[in-house]
Amino acid sequence: MTTASFPKDFLWGFATASYQIEGGIKDDGRGPSFWDTFCDIPGKIADGSSGVTACDSYHQYPADIELLKQLGAKAYRFSISWSRVIPVGGRNDPVNEKGLQYYVTLVDELVKAGIEPMVTLFHWDLPQGLHDRYGGLLNKEEYTKDYVRFARVMFEALGEKVKLWITYNEPWCSSVLGYSIGQFAPGHTSDRKKSPVGDSSREPWTVGHNILVAHGAAVKVYREEYKQKQGGVIGITLNGDWTEPWDPESKDDIEACERKLEFAISWFGDPIYHGKYPDSMRKQLGDRLPEWTEEDRALVQGSNDFYGMNTYCANYIKNIPHPAKPEDFTGNLELLLENKDGKSIGELTQSPWLRPYPQGFRKLIKWISDRYGKPIIYVTENGTSVLGENDKTKEEILNDDFRVKYFEDHLQALAEARTFDGVDVRGYMAWSLLDNFEWAEGYETRFGVTYVDYEGGQKRYPKKSAKAIGQIFDKLIENITSHSKTKNIHIPSTHAGQGLIAMSVLLETSAGDITIDLFVTDAPKCCENFLKLCKIKYYNFSPVYDVQPNFSFQSGDPIGPDSKDSDGGSSIWGLPSGTSKRATRPDRIVFKPEISRKRKHGERGTVSMATTVSKVNSDDRLAGSQFLITLGDNIEDLDGKAAIFGEVVEGFDALEKINTAFIDGKGRPLQDIRILHTVVLDDPYDDPPEMLEAPASPPPSAEQQATVRIAHDEVLEEDADPEKLEGLRREREARAQALTLELIGDLPFAEVTPPEQILFVCKLNPVTRDEDLELIFSRFGKILSCEVIRDKKSGDSLQYAFIEFATKEDCERAYFKMQGVLIDDHRIHVDFSQSVSKLSADWRNSTNSKTARGKGGFGGIDSLERRQQLNETADSATPRNLDSGQEVEVRFGVMLVDVREIAMSPATEMREMAAGVNEAVTDVSIVEDEKKSCLDDLPALSQLLAMEPLPDKMLVYHHRAGNSPIVANGLAVISVYKLNDLVAEHGDLQVTRKTIPRGALKLDILEVDLQTSAQRDVFGTMPNQEANVAGIKVPIRIWLGSVAGLAGFKEMIIVSKKRSAKM
């Protein structure tokens, strides 16, 4: 097993907040904050105290810095007292230079001590002057302007030395505890026993919204005015704790767990990362949750360079089956400390709300990472109080074993999340450096790793936990760094007794660094081969290929298997020197690797040699240089076939980039992913005779260069002359463009002339919609089709699109103007699309293209995907001829899709979503009345959508002759067009039945071959129609197209569970 660990540069330290430790609230010109005012109200603080003195850090900060040095901290997170810097707080109010200088000196001394400052601008202590002047956080316009000015003052004063900025700490607490419960300043609540002012049903949501806007505005200022010259990053810190269902068998409790996380975390996280509030909040709160203006959304969305995470504990969650009360802020649920069976979620602490649950820490940070696209995360607070600590003797307080255990368990969980779950966590700040003023709990609760003697001049005494944290990090960081400290082979503690000895190799790839531990005891021959090939730089510039998402990828052939120049690679013993990529000893190209029957490809990141069956002895398998790394867990197909010799211990973000890369049909990434460099961290083996060590970074060979498609580091020259750029791009990347569309469409050959009026747009923001692009690009001319391509199962954007213009000139203008433009905070790439195939000639004829694509998205990439599938899988049956002399009624119409393996949704939901034609309908033996045309009504489809419960099979298509419906494989008929006159006028029509499997879908279609140009003209000029389906207008379009080489007429609407496609 891999050992959970942190890298050498992991940033760890301690956190505090200004009002909780500084004191000196009237010293050197500091103005009052609304916490000073709140503390003066009797009954608001448990022990009647305030932050008037606190830890006296305003005067004793040198002792704090000395303490940090003694504890080995790499970082210190602290906050700024706004009212100390700008006493009244406003944008036109004077700056208090003495107060500002305190922070300048503090930062200077921290940097001198080698400690990284992490600065929080706002940790709940708003200047009282702003609260009095205009209501403070309740006034978005005034407050945002004042906050931005405050932020700018701090950026100017500290920015050269501060590289980690946090705009807000826990806006949930400011909003809910300050404006709903009334437990925090300013104490607003609807409970008139606690406060004469406040509206718990609206004020917290207003305050939260205003904080987000102010955060976004400050980030914009930092990025535009300071980031480039100061080189820092900026984010926000959000709080939230893990949830477990009170009843694990209750679907309602399970859903409530997710809802609680959304009301706590996603309230702020979703607008920043997704541009909107969670649907669960909008559903419960309605218009009480503010709407986003486009201006505010632009400020907030994408405004995090990193995610600051505060978490302490977990709760059991029980759903409330009744409608939510107006003042509810949790998501209409109960937070409990024991589950249905009476099991406590954790041990008691001094804080009633806090029960340690370290496994929840790992689950929560993984949840955050997954929901927000694997952001960089800093844990900015985590810690615990100790039951009865304040009542203990000083000696007992200093011996805080409970807190030590808390940190041990939670840091282990964090290391596991980083190592095994691929979470990109970069730092951890323990709460707190000092015992301090714990807000409404006063000084009765202690969270510090340092005891502060409040009656003895605030003298500091480090507790056992203060020293333990550094030791814990030394151990966890040691797990991955000790390999390079000694040549002696060692056995990691988690491997003891298992016969596993680990060496390490670093693969620097274009997707990121990957560190591999090698099992030199289990697989010495494989490890020696791999280490020596790395040492001679044999793998440098080797491509990644055969990518199978969630399964594995392969590398190790230095040229790549697609090249005619490739010899497949060689073992170290088949090579003549350290600089050659060519084997000269055929009898030693391969070797017999160790294939352990005990070792399995059970975990993501398992590394093994690719093998082949020996031609001499079929019981033997042979290996050379090529190796595999798994991209999923429990890849049993490789067990006993690939020779396991190591595991990835670092670089799971790189694995994920490879796993999600665009690939062609052979598994080759569209944009090259290559091994750029290899570093052997420890090598216990003697070099083979005649092996020459290669240069540090040998250049790629001519054969390797010839395999480049789109280079891994390729960036378009944004400043190049447009005409020159066009010529260069067409010449240099024609093949790469073809491969791009080969991935997503139908390209029978690659070297074709690009179409003249279709643009390929990529690098889109996932939130960008069809209508957004159409609106933006329509200024260049009329758009016939515009579609963002989406995943067939999830419906998520794949971040590329096709846009078809009416004219070549409009398309070219857009091409030259839109390259590199920012859309939804993403800098897009624009290029001309390749021609899809000869089969699209009819589809693109001047008459039909205008009628068939009257609505954005129709006839776009969906049809390319379907056409590719049809070409690959269509199975033509014997044609059926319809003679014009017969009394025949031919109808063509709606095509519904068999989705037997896809779960159905309730009919009510289907009807709601039918407007987008993107929800499944299901099969039923309904045949419309022979005498009715459903051109106006589509009664059969209407009946189908109205049925509850829905049948369990899907209906497919469509044709009937005479009075007898054609029902194939139990699939019924729905008609749209009555074409008797066309049949009589244009003679024989050839009808072909085809069955087309598409994954879980099975399409049964009838195709009519239009023999003459007159037939094609008539069909091609039929007007578009709209049918009324269950009260919803459904577009019916006519167009000419081709399937499997036939110039055929097809008019179909495919309705599937997650996605609609029109053909």
Would you mind describing this structure in some detail?
It contains 29 helices and 40 strands. With 1063 residues, the protein is α+β, with helices and mostly antiparallel strands. The protein folds into 4 domains: 466 residues, TIM Barrel, CATH 3.20.20; 213 residues, Cyclophilin-like (Cyclophilin, Beta Barrel), CATH 2.40.100.10; 115 residues, RRM (RNA recognition motif) domain (Alpha-Beta Plaits, 2-Layer Sandwich), CATH 3.30.70.330; 193 residues, no CATH class. The strands form 11 sheets. The chain has an 8-stranded parallel beta barrel with strand order 1-2-3-4-5-7-10-11, surrounded by 5 helices. Strands 16-17-19-18-20-15-14-21 form an 8-stranded antiparallel sheet. It is globular, with a radius of gyration of 33 Å.
Strand-residue proportion: 15-25%
CATH superfamily of the largest domain: Glycosidases
Spatial shape: globular
- Which structural class should the secondary elements be placed in? alpha+beta
Q: Please, how many domains?
A: 4
Number of helices: 29
Key structural traits:
1063 residues, alpha+beta, Alpha-Beta Plaits, eight-stranded antiparallel β-sheet, 20% strand
